[in-house]
Amino acid sequence: MELWYTELHTKGSGICFKVKETLFKKHSKFQEVTVLDTEDYGRMLVIDGLVMLTERDEFIYHEMMAHPALFLHRSPENVLVIGGGDGGTVREVARHKAVKSITLCEIDDVVLDVAKKFFPNLSTQLFSDNRVEIIVDDASKHIKDKKENYDVILVDSSDPVGPAENLFKRDFFESLKKSLKPDGIVVLQSESPFYHLDIIKNVRENLLGAGFDNVLFYWAHIPTYPGGVWCWAIASCTYHPIKDFSLEGKDFNMELKYYSPEIHKASFILPEYFKRALSEVLSFEF
């Protein structure tokens, strides 16, 4: 008998994967964590019934989570990754030689254990790079006493339900701003523009309300995510992600699969339906 995993994106549509084997399933203190071995996409991490990553396409998400901000910032020495216990974002941050410290704040230690056992290609830097410090804690608590600590903060959270719900609220964004240095940059995964425009607009409004001057969105195709597209918010009081983007003094000698200087610029060109929903944000010219 064939085994299939289905994730519904609406009541009438979703995505299916043929499963070879269920490798792991456990209810942690916060969520249900599952690892499936699929026929077409390799190992898949599922949290509370939602696909977080697959071995086949995770590189797109993680490269786009990390590199736009790290190549934009002139000197990204201290980086905080919130969530991202699978290690993929830390892996990409660690490619940057200018980075001196990487703090990972993950609320669920089960995710860390699963990453180490089942996703070594993602998690190697978590446990082998001496620049990395792992903190198992609620990120909203971790950053409350931090002031101007970080150059870049990458919020690699799960969807805005359960333990990640607080990571999409204005008071959390205000704490992010306080914990950034004056020229700091924050990036947040911001859901699918095809299905989640209401969430995306709330992210924009809350970032602007928290005091960030430049709030823009960029996007990429990710086959296993709802609608096949995903987006990120990037916010700063100093840097504009198009006007201030330059590789001068940067080492781009990396073996990346998706991100490039051309992709960086192109990813901020949004389709009309997305632009209309965010018309207040897009006041610049390409």
Automatic annotation (TrEMBL):
Source species, domain of life: Bacteria
GO annotation, cellular component aspect: cytosol
Binding site for S-methyl-5'-thioadenosine: 31, 106, 138-139, 163
PROSITE patterns: PABS_1 (PS01330), PABS_2 (PS51006)
Cited InterPro entries: PABS (IPR030374), PABS_CS (IPR030373), SAM-dependent_MTases_sf (IPR029063), Spermi_synthase (IPR001045), Spermidine_synt_N (IPR035246), Spermidine_synt_N_sf (IPR037163)
The keyword Protein biosynthesis is assigned to this record: no
Gene3D superfamilies in UniProt: Spermidine synthase, tetramerisation domain, Vaccinia Virus protein VP39
Enzyme Commission code: 2.5.1.16
A GO biological process held by the record: spermidine biosynthetic process
Job of this protein: Catalyzes the irreversible transfer of a propylamine group from the amino donor S-adenosylmethioninamine (decarboxy-AdoMet) to putrescine (1,4-diaminobutane) to yield spermidine.
Protein name per Swiss-Prot or TrEMBL: Polyamine aminopropyltransferase
Organism expressing this protein natively: Dissulfuribacter thermophilus
Source organism phylogeny: Bacteria, Pseudomonadati, Thermodesulfobacteriota, Dissulfuribacteria, Dissulfuribacterales
Gene that encodes the chain: speE
